[in-house]
Amino acid sequence: MAEKVTAADFASSLSAVLQYYDTALQEQIQKAVDDEAKLLKNDIIATSPDRTGKYKKGWRLTKKYEGAFKYTVIVHNKPRYNIVHLIEHGRGDNGIGAKPHILAAQEKHTDALIKRIDDVIGSW
Degrees (nearest 5) of the Cα angle 32, 103, 122? Predict the structure, then answer.
């Protein structure tokens, strides 16, 4: 049932409703980002080269909160960060071939994340 609000209380009531909407929407978007980042990490692990196993096992997620509206999840290879670029792109002068495994997964999950965020916003 609708709640009656006086003209004097309208601004504070509207502010409370918008604050609830903002908080709930942020939580759902953060959950979508977390879920998609986990899926991305698992795809990268599945397609990573596996010569010694250190590179494949080194993928991690790092979450960053920078203010109310900036939430970032970084997928990175903690122990073997220095060779990610070389494995992904190769080195033409030595004849070391590229083994692309990150870019395709990133594009796939970026599109999926955009769709999930659109669904979250559209459901409100």
Answer: 25
